[in-house]
Design goal:
It contains eight helices and 14 strands. It has about 325 residues and is α+β, with helices and mostly antiparallel strands. The protein has two domains: about 110 residues, no CATH class; about 150 residues, Porin (Beta Barrel). The chain has an eight-stranded antiparallel barrel.
Length: about 325
């Protein structure tokens, strides 16, 4: 695995990975008016309104401080593209790290842990903006994210972190999370797998289950009899490749003996093909609210050679729906 750093004045200084982890915001630049604001507050001088700073003119009156932002880093740096779209540097850092420009200089992989840096950069993205990664990361970069996430198991502190609060499996609470998922290259029989959603829910006994939703080429007709439930289990490696992972979504036959499930969810039924053929999605935690998975059709026949159902799957938590008890 070749990784890179840039000697120019780029927003991505890979030579300082470890130092950025210790100082999360050491490389984030506040806007000019925030720098001016902080200096003037410390010096006790007159304050200027943001509009005045942007226009180059100062107000002539001194006004007391009424309120301040919780953090100067709330004002995330961005640039406006020619078409009017806003491009935030936090998301661009993730993309640049997974797909570095050709002029970057390779770094010795033993000098840092790339998974630590990727986790930090995802953590820098506000929760309400993380869904943008679904459209900004192409299938090649999703696969790259899976590869980089494999290095997190070399860091004991990072290996303990989880992208989902439900993976801990603590008994006594019934919570539910919604996740948006994107991949590419699925078989025609499951073409919907290019973009779908999952709902993870934790039962009162601590067991975690999930369900694939919006998963029908018949525009919802089959959802009533094929809701595609799965069991979430802690698994250490992908069976077919022996690569490390965190959890596995085991589909089984679909006939789960659930005593209760979230309101509005259909009753579990037998899975249609190919999900009735021992399909498992192995998942790696990549960052807060972001995971990457591999779907394998392992087969009920012991002599069957396991095969990938599709390319790697990017999973991003839907923060618009807060985790609530069902």
């Amino acid at each position: 695995m070749s990784l890179y750093c840039c000697t120019s004045s780029s927003s991505l200084h890979l030579r300082e990975f470890d130092s950025q982890i210790k100082k999360p915001y050491s490389k984030v630049r506040a806007s000019n008016h925030l720098k001016l604001y902080r200096r003037q507050v410390n010096a006790g001088r007159r304050l200027y309104a943001p509009n005045s700073i942007n226009s180059g003119t100062a107000r002539s009156t001194i006004k007391p401080v009424v309120s301040v932002h919780a953090s100067p880093w709330d004002d995330k740096p961005y640039r406006v593209l020619p078409g009017g779209e806003v491009s935030y540097y936090d998301e661009r850092d993730v993309i640049s790290f997974l797909d570095p420009p050709k002029q970057l200089i390779p770094l010795d992989p033993s000098s840092y842990n790339p998974a630590v840096y990727l986790w930090k950069k995802i953590d820098d993205i506000p929760e309400e903006r993380r869904h943008r990664l679904l459209t900004q990361l192409n299938p090649r970069l999703i696969t790259r994210a899976w590869e980089v996430a494999g290095a997190r198991y070399d860091n004991s502190n990072l290996a303990k972190k989880s992208s989902s609060s439900l993976f801990a499996g603590e008994a006594g609470a019934k919570l539910i999370e919604s996740w948006h998922c994107r991949t590419n290259g699925g078989p025609l029989a499951v073409a919907w797998i290019n973009y779908f959603k999952t709902a993870l829910f934790c039962c009162i006994d601590g067991q975690t289950f999930g369900r694939v939703i919006d998963a029908s080429v018949f525009r919802g007709i089959s959802r009533a009899f094929a809701p595609l439930y799965f069991t979430v289990r802690e698994v250490n490696e992908v069976m077919s490749t022996e690569e490390p992972c965190d959890v596995a979504y085991e589909f089984g036959t679909g006939l789960l003996d659930l005593q209760e499930y979230p309101q509005g969810f259909p009753k579990p039924e037998k899975h249609p093909w190919p999900f009735n053929d021992a399909v498992v999605i192995y998942v790696r935690n990549v960052g807060p609210g972001v995971m990457v998975g591999q779907a394998w059709q392992e087969g009920e026949d012991l002599n069957q050679v396991p095969k990938k159902l599709c390319s790697e799957i990017l999973m991003v938590k839907d923060y618009s729906h807060l985790d609530t008890s069902w």
